[in-house]
Amino acid sequence: MAWLQRFGFMRLLRAALAVLFLVDALRGGGAVAWILAALLGAQAWFNVGCCGTACAAPAMNRNSGTDVQEVDFEEVKAP
Considering 6, 14, 25, 51, which has the largest number of Cβ atoms within 10 A of its Cβ? Predict the structure, then answer.
């Protein structure tokens, strides 16, 4: 099953939640359950989450912290 290796934890979680909401929608027929099942199913199918790459976390700045410079403050008085 080579296709299963491409599935990460979040993709499997979205697929499982989509199935659960689909079962709930089929039992109760609630509109919210249908919408959530469709949304989570599409996210699992296309392997996207959080509107594609719009929620990608920025890269961490890994400075060593040794180049900290001293800051000089100057008091400014109103005329």
Answer: 14
